[in-house]
Amino acid sequence: MLQLDSLSKTVREPNGQQRRLFDALHMTMADHDRSIAILGRSGSGKSTLLRILAGLDGAYTGSYFHAGELVPQREQASADFRMRHIGYVTQSYDLLEDRNVLHNVRLGVGPGEDAEERASECLAAVQLEGFERKPVRHLSGGEAQRVAIARALAKRPDVVLADEPTGALDERTERSILDLFADLQRQGRRFIIATHSETVARACDRRLVLADGRLVERG
Ligand SMILES: Nc1ncnc2c1ncn2[C@@H]1O[C@H](COP(=O)(O)OP(=O)(O)OP(=O)(O)O)[C@@H](O)[C@H]1O
Question: Which Gene3D superfamilies did the record assign (predicted)?
Answer without folding.
Answer: P-loop containing nucleotide triphosphate hydrolases
